[in-house]
């Protein structure tokens, strides 16, 4: 179906809501004794559930009643207190941990086989020689071409404990016989630093897509390489980053500020304040930093942007951030599920709360994007509403505001043309990735033989390929227009192809080539 114009901002809002849910994981401890002390409210709920379980006239799943009850309670709190059921919690925990144990491939169930999109760098499959385009036909003697293999059962077959052996048999294009690979399952990294390269001779670029346990180490590794390549300035891209662990955000800030600088402070319901300061030995204390944010940058992303802005370090570039200044604590409920509960507010070093209002409910809260879209804020900095009562000053006298997100020092408008928004939504979707996979399949041996430099010089996205993609989308009931946006198609198609062949960094390098915010950062860096 064609995505109607009026629904595009709503789709973005829903995406933001999901991202914030996945990104609002902060690492705080709690007191079991205090939490589970006996009280009449808890006993009332237990009695009601037991009464329904034993006496209700029809058979009923009381687990579902518990889920509904928990969700009902949390719905009356704030938008970020949430219940995570067991099936979702496993995936969220794995994503935020920064690795998983398995064979290390991204794949599609495709034409009665498991088609490898890419063997993940640093994983056991890549080390063993598995390549994109390979078909996994058997795993430990189990025929994976059977329709009875579900996503869950496939996950159980391919994942496992560290150093447990697995044998896979692969059909490779151009090879007559099946290839056999024997190796051990191992930890497979899930990178949160998804882009790291030089924009100019002295300006490095790092993109962080979430703040996981491994983010600070990944960031230090990337920053070290860029410094060795000559970077004296860094563009830190936190656009569309929904947040994550506060400790990882603090670690990133610490690399830019000298010792004993305030990063943030938190305040709980009793008024207790906890301060967080930088340590010593930051890698980039002398260099300039540009922090890229947008309306989807939230939570830990805003901690980084706010800490650097309030300490007069660097320049914030882009559009006003999401506006999440609440701190969550996560509690395991013992059955594989968890509750994420808001337990404090955080404040930037100047004392700003950047939490936007949520008194009107979740719907109004997450439709704030739609409000920004309609009031012109995404196109003009003059449309950003600020309150004098929430005005603060940095140590060097720069005026900053609280009350709903980090306002950038340098504003870069969003292209809110309907067709461009529609295209950006589709071009980053699974439709594009599946189409590109099928394009690569037309000559997999050739594409797998290319270096990145050869790929840049030799591979061209023709008008015919663009038309093929439009037809591919139309077959799936998505209507796209081609007349005025061929260069946008061309850039995303080639970037997605580079991503499947060479990884996320290659995608970011190519998709960023015509990015307005990055162009602005490059121009600003030349003024320094």
Automatic annotation (TrEMBL):
Biological processes, Gene Ontology terms: proteolysis; signal transduction
Molecular function (Gene Ontology), one example: endopeptidase activity
Keywords of this entry: Hydrolase, Membrane, Protease, Serine protease, Transmembrane, Transmembrane helix
Pfam families linked: PDZ_2 (PF13180), Peptidase_S41 (PF03572)
SUPFAM superfamilies cross-referenced by the UniProt entry: ClpP/crotonase, PDZ domain-like
TM ranges: 7-30
CC terms in the record's Gene Ontology section: outer membrane-bounded periplasmic space
Family under the similarity heading: Belongs to the peptidase S41A family.
Name this protein carries in UniProt: Peptidase S41
Biological source species: Dokdonia donghaensis DSW-1
